[in-house]
Amino acid sequence: MSYTFGQEQLDGIEDVLQQDLIDIGVSCVFIIDMAGNIIANRDNGESQHDVYSLAALAAGNFGAVSAMAKIIGEGEFSLLFHKGVKENIHFNKIVSEFLMITIFSNDISLGFLRLKVNEAVEKIKTALGATEVP
Amino acid sequence: MAFVNPKKKEVQVKIVYYGPGRGGKTTNLEYIYDKFSSRIKTEMVTIKTHGDRTLFFDFLPFDIGKVNGYDVKIQLYTVPGQVKYNATRRLVLRGVDGMVFVADAMAVRREKNILSLKNLQENLANYKRSIFKVPMVLQYNKVDLAEQGIPILPVETLEQDLNAKLKTASFPASALMGTNVVATLKKIISLTMASIVKDLK
After folding, report:
1. In this complex, how many residue pairs, one in chain A and one in chain B, have their CB atoms less than 8 Å apart?
2. Which end of chain B is more exposed for a tag (fewer CB within 10 A), N or C?
3. Total of domains in chain A
4. ipTM, 2 dp
5. Percentages (nearest 5) of helix, strand, coil residues in chain A
6. With contact defined as beta carbons under 8 Å apart, do B99 and B136 qualify?
7. CA distance A58 to A117
8. Which of A11-20, A65-74, B46-55, B83-92 has the lowest mean pLDDT?
9. Average pLDDT, chain B
10. Would you say residue A35 lies in a domain?
11. Chain A environment of B198 (Cβ under 8 Å)
12. How many angstroms away from the CA of B111 is the closest CA of chain A?
């Protein structure tokens, strides 16, 4: 479970987050590992979220939902979506150790967001050099 | 494992407070949060049931400054102590860098401490980690209850029960009064940082 990233790799990942997600209007996006550490994050400059607490809770949430999946005979649920009045949260697994969390307002449709998240995830997998299929 | 970010020059360190239910893990974090509130920028996150027990975990992040040029972010977690929440405990242990085992010094809880420590060993083994290799500090909490006439285990007994093999630092403490809470924290931070400092080149 031990891993390291180089600066170039992190630059590449943050560029993807910026161009594919923040530039289309997502307010905040971050990549975490399953222990709740933040690997990379980007926001639109207005979002004031406490990303460290969000990361800890998101990792816990994803773990809890994965345990639920196993009980009903699914290996896991690879994406989760929480709908709010103004802001929504979308979770997408990248590879077994990493998750992408996206916070976005109702100005972006869920379908469009999912499309862009999928594109970004594919690029990040390449940046990670990951061959593992989620 | 501690996550080292070479781009931001930042390292995130996960320290988990483990131990039997109602032993004072959350109380430790609450004391730290109160004591250092001026230096902790965020709210403490806590997920409790109605009975005031930790359902999932508590989470308290804070910065301790720079080590080898890296900003060190300490993230304190607690686990739910009740036996039935083992799946949650296991989740929280993922990627742990340092542990505080909060034992309950009340004589009636002797068995629960031993079982909880054994449970910790099993859960770490699940991640292929050894309880003897993860930095750990023991805390014998609630020693102040002796003043109220409540039977408390002597430190020698607690050492024999819990620390005979681990042979690590231990502190008699009162999380409620704050006795040795900060000493415990400082010790685990220094042990944990010593174990990961080799990664900070």
Report:
1. 72
2. C
3. 1
4. 0.73
5. 45, 25, 30
6. yes
7. 17
8. B46-55
9. 92
10. yes
11. none
12. 29
